[in-house]
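Morning. Coffee machine broken again, so started the prediction first thing and wrote up yesterday's gels while waiting. Chain of 96 residues, entered below exactly as on the submission form.
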Amino acid sequence: RQNGDALLYAAVPLKADRELVLEAARQNCEALNYAAKPLKADRELMLEAVRQNGYALYAAADLLRADRELVLEAVRQNGNALCFAAEPLKADRELV
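Came back before lunch.
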């Protein structure tokens, strides 16, 4: 909980701990790289993460990169997050 980057070295069960991963992502969204795969598909976790830092969208499961609401939140926080969205959403006028 001291440094989001420490998740890289954490034991596998900790990488699957939702609260720990969310706290790490609040400190550094790159910590999501080291999160267990199921957490990258956890819509509520990823929604909170992109609200903190739109770039967190890069770590989201493909299904969530196609989730319009989630992408909209990411883009509201950081317009450049659109580069991580699924291709069809990149053509959505409201998101651009």
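Residues 17 and 36 are 8 Å apart (CA to CA). Going to sketch it on the whiteboard this afternoon.
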